Hints:
Blueprint: E1 2-7, H1 22-34, E2 38-43, H2 49-56, E3 60-63, H3 76-84, H4 93-100, H5 102-111, E4 119-122, E5 137-141, E6 155-156, H6 159-173, E7 177-181, E8 186-193, E9 199-200, E10 204-207, H7 213-218, H8 225-231, E11 236-238, H9 245-261, E12 267-274, E13 280-286, H10 297-304, H11 309-327
Parallel strand pairs: 1-2, 1-3
Antiparallel strand pairs: 4-7, 5-6, 5-7, 8-9, 8-10, 8-12, 10-11, 12-13
Helix pairs in contact: 1-11
The structure holds adenosine-5'-triphosphate (ATP) and magnesium ion.
Adenosine-5'-triphosphate is lined by residues 117, 138, 140, 144-148, 150, 180, 182-183, 187, 222-223, 271, 273, 283-284, 286.
Amino acid sequence: MKVGITFNLKRSETELDEFDRPVTIEAIKRALEARGHKVKLYEATSPLLFYSLTIDRPQFVFNIAEGKYGAYREAFVPALLDELRIPYTGSSVLSLAISMDKVMTKEVLLYHGIPTPKFKVLKVIDPIEIGDLNYPVIVKPIFEGSSIGITSKSICENDIELKEAAEKAFRKFKRPIMVEEFIGGMEVTVGVMGNFPPQVLPPMEIDFSTLSKRELKASPYIQTYKFKTDYSDKANYYLPARLPVEVLQKITEIVKNAFIALRNRDVARFDLRVDKNYNPYILEVNPLPGLDPEHSDLPRIYKLMGKTYGDLINDILQVAVERYRLETKISYNHEE
Ligand SMILES: Nc1ncnc2c1ncn2[C@@H]1O[C@H](COP(=O)(O)OP(=O)(O)OP(=O)(O)O)[C@@H](O)[C@H]1O
Ligand SMILES: [Mg+2]
């Protein structure tokens, strides 16, 4: 098949963004070529993107473009592909836009009775207070990924710390922010693959206890930006997570319901915390999960399942192709 890859390229290792490293694009290209596909690359920031896709008309696009500007940037390339009627892997414009907004994501989850930590939105003119939340809380930007804006200072134990963290976040992001009850306990990330029905992969535990004292100070048992960029290879990963079977089953059930509720397609990764009483909470969804062959969690999950990076990439393409094939026969959701 003639497959295009749409992506945003990281220009330098120090750039603070969510874009992909050249090695990731190359690895995806090689994985697809190894299964006989003819692959062409499309850098999504190019002003010629619309033109090249119109002229080339790939049969399918493997989309990992995060988009550059605006709160809903991940939806840009899928909107273009919809307009050109070129099929692509992954979630729709609506689903990607919802998941860019952590508050909207949580509102959808709550509507469906799916557990997510209690939260409050603060606008710059609001008094900085926690209302009916309980300390500790964590202050987060609403529209960022890759733990951008999350540091050890984001966790607040009292009003003074909250004021400091909130004011800093307002200055940095110039948008409303979110204050969320902090869930101590275990960090778990869960992959989902496919559609009819979605297959929830075994939950993966991220164990921070192998980090040094200094590293834990910068990243106190959470995934800060520093952790994602510098420490992620130093953590321990357990698949499945070291939890009782009933808890793993409960996680699988809520993640599957969340995938459906959030209109996700083909692939996604959910970040969760599990408190000391074994209650799981969904923090957020990543419908364009990182595919860095060395540092991303979904490739890690596949490796721990005994599968290869090539399997992962080709599974994503295959479930998307299958979905399009079935969509021509049945209209299974209201977006069609
Ligand atoms: N309510 C919470 N309780 C405990 N830890 C939290 C909470 N919210 C966030 N964290 C910690 O901060 C990390 C980043 O938070 P979150 O996943 O919401 O942000 P992100 O920047 O969107 O990350 P991603 O790269 O997955 O998109 C989490 O993985 C977790 O370690
Ligand atoms: Mg996350």
